[in-house]
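User: Can you recover a sequence for this backbone? Please restate the input before giving your answer.

Assistant: Of course. Working from this structure:
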């Protein structure tokens, strides 16, 4: 595992761990000091489990997306690039729908934090742009096979931007959890 992948994997573990330690009580987020929740073990609290499940699903999808991005970047043949790019488009369609759905990022972050909500709105807007760009690149690959080198460079750039986008989502989740830890005690 390279250094960047190890860092991302570590960040996902931190997000999962921190979200598992959070839960909602009476509308306020509290953390796991022994008496903060009236003696209830936080791992058994439904809100904690819901956030953790949402975070786990998103983290797993991010891992799968990185694998597809790696395949895309490593594929030099034009015909194969179209196939992998179309796979990425289908994968992102499902992934973005889940992130934007009720069980997605909205559920996993602290929506009472206006900055987190604005960041999430920007990330959701980026989803639309990625879908359009992927469709455009697939059309260009199909129609202009001779331009493969230039398009492949754009694909590598797109992969880098998508990785940065997913990293910002992970950072948002981490910041949301970290800024919430300790409140309500």
């Amino acid at each position: 595992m390279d250094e960047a992948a190890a860092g991302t994997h570590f960040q996902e573990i931190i997000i999962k761990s921190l979200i598992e330690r959070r839960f909602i009580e009476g509308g306020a987020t509290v953390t796991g000091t022994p008496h903060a929740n009236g003696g209830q073990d936080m791992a058994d609290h439904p809100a904690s489990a819901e956030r953790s499940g949402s975070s786990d699903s998103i983290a797993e999808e991010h891992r799968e997306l990185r694998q597809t991005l790696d395949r895309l970047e490593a594929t030099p043949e034009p015909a194969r690039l179209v196939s992998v790019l179309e796979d990425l488009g289908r994968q992102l369609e499902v992934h973005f729908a889940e992130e934007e759905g009720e069980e997605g990022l909205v559920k996993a972050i602290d929506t009472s934090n206006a900055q987190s909500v604005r960041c999430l709105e920007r990330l959701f807007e980026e989803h639309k742009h990625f879908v359009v760009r992927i469709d455009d690149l697939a059309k260009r690959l199909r129609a202009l096979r001779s331009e493969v080198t230039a398009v492949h460079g754009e694909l590598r750039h797109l992969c880098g931007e998508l990785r940065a986008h997913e990293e910002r989502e992970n950072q948002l989740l981490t910041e949301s959890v970290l800024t919430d830890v300790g409140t309500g005690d």
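That completes the design. Helices lie at 3-20, 46-74, 78-100, 105-108, 114-143, 148-180.
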